[in-house]
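Hi R.,

As promised, here are both runs. First protein below:
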Amino acid sequence: MSEIENITLKKIGRRIQELRTEQNLSQQDLAAKINYEKSNMSRLEAGKTNMTVLLLKKLLML
């Protein structure tokens, strides 16, 4: 993965974390709402994994 891709994933992860905390949700709470594993949510917020379009849709629907 390129450096630009890594930076992008980290920015997206930080934004997801910001929005989650604004809604007073834990990672576990958010993961449960979108039927996603908490461990995967942690990696997503850390910018260590990419998300699918379907997952992005679920996050946007909250």
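And here is the second one, sequence first, then its structure tokens:
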Amino acid sequence: MTDQPRAILADDEPHLLDYLASQLASVWPELRIVAKAANGVDALRLIDEEAPDVVFLDIRMPGLNGLDLAARLSSGTKPPRIVFVTAHEQYAVDAFDHAAVDYLLKPPSLERLGRTVAKLKEALRTQGASAAPALAPDALQLLLQQLRLQGVPVGVAPASAPAQVAAPLQWIRAAHGEETRLIPIEDVIYFQSNDKYTSVFLADGESLIRTPLSKLREQLDETQFWQIHRSVIVAARHVAGTRTDFRGRLMVQLKGRAEQLVVSRNYVDLFRQM
């Protein structure tokens, strides 16, 4: 194993790429992250250019699925060691346990990532010129079959196919006082535009992100997050009901919270049936 092993990270959610990079810096400071990719096609190109020792692959990525990418890499003469990263435990986790790779559930804790790093260090230490395939062929076929049964596209999208719609945002990297937090989207009560920032309101306080509300809206599941004002998006599960104030404005009442949110005229139709 070299003094400074090299890695590439691939995930279509930038904040999770940054989070994984920061966690790796803590548990494996000698690891050099040489590139990050936002989709499978870019990841394949970068891996070919950089020849990293280790690759962290998201399973669901636009263009080229993480498992299909692993299948291509395993056919090489000296494939990198691969760790799959997934937000969904149902993606053949048992099969991963029997394959010659590791998996991580998002977001990985330092303790869990530390165990993965220990496996990788041992694999790289014992790796010779005839390294074993990154993933056993039988295990790979099992994983691909299970993903197909679950409706996950496997393979490169044809050039004429429409671009894949990105999955709804699952995590938010936000400033909270002096620290940076990775916040699960289900913990958010509402977002509110705040000058150059967007405030993220949680049960335990308020955090800040730089993403404009208009951009944030494109990344949210519109069935779960409702825009009620040009400056406010609220989580539907936290809406207790509505009332009309003395000025005739429609107000959203939140579960277990005192503040009430104004619904602008453009969004009143959302609540006609309430």
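A quick note on the second one: Residues 45 and 164 are 19 Å apart (CA to CA). Let me know what you think.

Best,
J.
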